[in-house]
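Researcher: Quick test of sequence recovery. Tokens follow.
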């Protein structure tokens, strides 16, 4: 584990209304998860680790190296114990890691081409997006058995459960978001309805909910962020910031602001949430 540092470049720089950036020597930040205390966990694809930031953007430490990860991509925090589940694309594995950086195990089963993961609201199931396999598999976390398979999703890059455990999928190759209404009353979930929406997106890749329950989507090909009414699929806001360069993922912090992995710009971008005041520079 790397020693804690405070890089002068980690100060937040304002990019204009609603947007500021955090730089701290990041190299291709790909996935992000934010703990309840605001600590940020960011995968660095080419450094083969997870950079850990304080809520104010100070780089604290790194987790992992090439003995733990080959190419870490998406990650998710368990909603109760806050264990990290990390999708390792080149390693074809999902690695479970404590916030202190201790490897706790790996998900059993074939998870080749894994790029993203998401826990349900109870932390009992983990959805796994397998990009080149064009499939999403949902695993029971206790038994590590597959309880649901969603096939024929072209170049799937992201998954997300809503608060009642319906499933959203970034159907990246088809430039769409899929909504799957799930019935969890039986031993395994069943899909009862599905709809999709596109809104002119090109390769959507990152999914998160804002504080008001709207669905935020990273429109990777257009280097922008969209928010949708999660029920109707109507676009409610569009945001593109200066120098945006193929962003990949986003998460919401305890202040109600989004933090975006602006991958090819090697930075995190802070987007002020609805009704929240702009965050002051650190």
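Model:
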């Amino acid at each position: 584990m790397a020693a804690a540092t405070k890089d002068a470049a980690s100060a937040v720089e304002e990019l204009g209304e609603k947007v500021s950036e955090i730089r701290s020597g990041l190299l291709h930040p790909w996935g992000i998860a934010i703990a309840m205390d605001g600590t940020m966990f960011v995968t660095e694809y080419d450094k083969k680790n997870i950079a850990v930031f304080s809520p104010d953007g100070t780089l604290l430490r790194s987790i992992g190296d090439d003995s733990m990860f080959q190419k870490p991509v998406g990650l998710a925090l368990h909603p109760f114990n806050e264990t990290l589940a990390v999708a390792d694309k080149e390693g074809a594995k999902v690695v479970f890691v404590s916030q202190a950086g201790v490897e706790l195990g790996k998900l059993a089963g074939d998870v080749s081409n894994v790029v993203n993961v998401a826990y349900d609201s109870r932390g009992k199931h983990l959805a796994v997006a397998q990009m080149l396999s064009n499939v999403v598999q949902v695993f029971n976390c206790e038994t590590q058995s597959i309880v649901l398979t969603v096939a024929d999703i072209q170049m799937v890059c992201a998954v997300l459960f809503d608060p009642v455990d319906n499933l959203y999928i970034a159907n990246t190759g088809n430039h769409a978001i899929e909504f799957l209404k799930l019935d969890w009353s039986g031993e395994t979930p069943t899909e009862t309805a599905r709809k999709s929406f596109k809104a002119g997106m090109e390769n959507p890749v990152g999914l998160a909910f804002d504080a008001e329950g709207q669905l935020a989507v990273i429109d990777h090909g257009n280097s922008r962020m969209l928010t949708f009414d999660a029920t109707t699929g109507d676009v409610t806001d569009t945001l593109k910031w200066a120098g945006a360069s193929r962003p990949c993922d986003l998460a919401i912090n305890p202040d109600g602001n989004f933090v975006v992995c602006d991958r090819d710009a090697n930075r995190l971008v802070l987007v002020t949430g609805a009704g929240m005041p702009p965050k002051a520079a650190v």
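The radius of gyration is 17 Å.
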